[in-house]
Amino acid sequence: MKILTSDAAEMLQSADDILILTHQSPDGDTLGSGFAICRALRRLGKRAQVVCSDQIPHKYAYLWEGLDSQQFTPKFILAVDVADPKLLGNKLSVYADKVDLCIDHHGSNTQYAKHLLLEECAATCEMIYGVIGAMGVELDRAMAEDLYTGISTDTGCFRYSNTTVRTHLIAAKLLGLGIDAYAINRAMFEIKSPSFFALRKLALDSMETYFDGHCALIYITYQNMQSTSAQQEDLDGLTAIPRQMEGVDIGVILKEKEPGAWKISVRTGEPYNASALCSKLGGGGHARAAGCALTGTAQQVRDQMLPVLAEALGVSL
Ligand SMILES: [Mn+2]
């Protein structure tokens, strides 16, 4: 059932022993939302704890600074920024049909929770800002850092088209609480591990262009991942690279997940349909971003891709 911000605030005010679920492969928005609301609930004297199926990357550690871990049997289950119970991941899947309240900004939310607070805005943290206010809790600097992190990361540092007047107004309020936005944005967007650079170097070296530069391919082999000790987060932004080169209409990333098993990600510019292209290889997705799975050596996989790419561009191989 869909509810309003004031209803969500009332529900949380009368709840106790609140378990806060975040989505797998956690990002700044799910974590910022979770820890901000956790701090607000604890301020009201309640027990509350944020949990995640996956290990949280250490760059987010400041989000829960000063929050100790609490053990209790949950009486109320809150999910934040989780559009689909599948996104809870393995460890939290036991709560899939037990969520009392979900606060989320994805239009694709599957309405799995008993109560749903849904607004299509830039970040769940924008909504949490409203819920904390409606609960009558005064924001402190730590909550402001959590909320700013989610808003900044989900808007690509206020660059994406989801950024609205309200996004900036909330961010301005948070800055007014004395947070160090420069340090947050540097930690979220600039600092990368040595593995990230090692992997990126190999990825750029592997780049190939086809069809008069209208198509670019990048390979990340299983061996590349092993030799650079790269983690999932070190792949950040790689799928965008081929399309960043001037003149490229179709960008392809070929990532070897296990020896001989490849995950292909395709990014296209208008009018090329990535989903239609990938469906010819057994995959699918969205008009501008889609994917498929192929097997073989790098060369064999490329040889399966090229005719489909040529057809999509309307050129001969
Ligand atoms: Mn989000």
Can you describe this structure?
The protein has helices at 5-13, 28-43, 89-92, 124-134, 141-154, 165-175, 181-190, 194-205, 222-227, 241-244, 274-279, 298-313; strands at residues 18-21, 48-51, 76-80, 101-104, 115-118, 208-210, 215-220, 250-258, 261-268, 284-285, 289-295. It has 317 residues and is α/β, with parallel strands linked by helices. Strands 6-7-8-9-11-10 form a six-stranded mixed beta sheet. The protein has a five-stranded parallel beta sheet with strand order 2-1-3-4-5, covered by helices on one side. The longest helix has 16 residues, at 28-43. It starts with a helix and ends with a helix. InterPro entries: DDH_dom, DHH_sf, DHHA1_dom, Oligoribo/pAp-PDE_c-di-AMP_PDE.
Q: Which structural class is indicated by helix and strand composition?
A: alpha/beta
The proportion of strand residues reads 15-25%
Largest β sheet strand count, sense and barrel closure:
6 strands, mixed
Mean pLDDT: 97
What is the CA-CA span between the terminal residues?
53 Å
Contiguous helical run count: 12
User: Which CATH C-level class of the largest domain is it?
Assistant: Alpha Beta
Identify the overall geometry: elongated
CATH fold description of the largest domain: inorganic pyrophosphatase (n-terminal core)
What's the total count of β strands? Answer: 11
- What's the CATH architecture name of the largest domain? Alpha-Beta Complex
Strand order of the largest sheet: 6-7-8-9-11-10
**In the residues, how many domains can be counted?**
2
Rg from Cα: 22 Å
Q: Helical residue percent?
A: 25-40%
| Corresponding CATH superfamily of the largest domain | inorganic pyrophosphatase (n-terminal core)
Stretches with pLDDT under 50, minimum 5 residues: none
The kinds of small molecule bound in this structure are:
manganese (II) ion
Order of H and E elements: HEHEEHEEHHHHHEEHHEEHEEH
Pfam families: DHH (PF01368), DHHA1 (PF02272)
Protein name: Phosphoesterase
GO molecular function: nucleic acid binding
Domain DHHA1: 227-305
